Amino acid sequence: MRDYIRKRVVDVSLYIVKTNATVRQAALVFGVSKSTVHKDVTERLPRINKELAEQVKKVLEINKSERHIRGGEATKRKYGVKGASRAS
User: Fold this and answer.
1) φ and ψ at 35, to 5 degrees?
2) 26-53 pLDDT tens trace
């Protein structure tokens, strides 16, 4: 693995652990695609640092379990919904 890739993998991983960032947020910060970040942390990182890989995995699992909430909040912001209830 090339040095610049190895450095990016570690940097992205540390950023995710430190900030509890999503794959999308990390991709924006580091200027790479979501696919690249995902491949870095799921395939490359375990070969470089197993301990860090476990920490990142925990953060990503939490983010995955909360994504439906984030999606609902984004929709609320987009359409300006203020506690509207559904009509029966």
Assistant:
1) -60, -40
2) 999 999 999 999 999 999 999 999 999 9
Q: Would you state the structure tokens that stand for residue 85, as one six-digit string?
A: 């209830």
- SS3 for the chain is CCHHHHHHHHHHHHHHHHHCCCHHHHHHHHCCCHHHHHHHHHHHHHHHCHHHHHHHHHHHHHHHHHHHHHHHHHHHHHHCCCCCCCCC
Q: Which amino acid is located at 60 in the chain?
A: L
Distance CA 7, CA 79 (A): 40
Answer left, alpha or beta for residue 66, where phi above 0 means left and psi between -120 and 50 means alpha.
alpha
As a whole number of angstroms, the longest Cα–Cα distance in the chain is: 60
- The structure's pTM equals 0.78
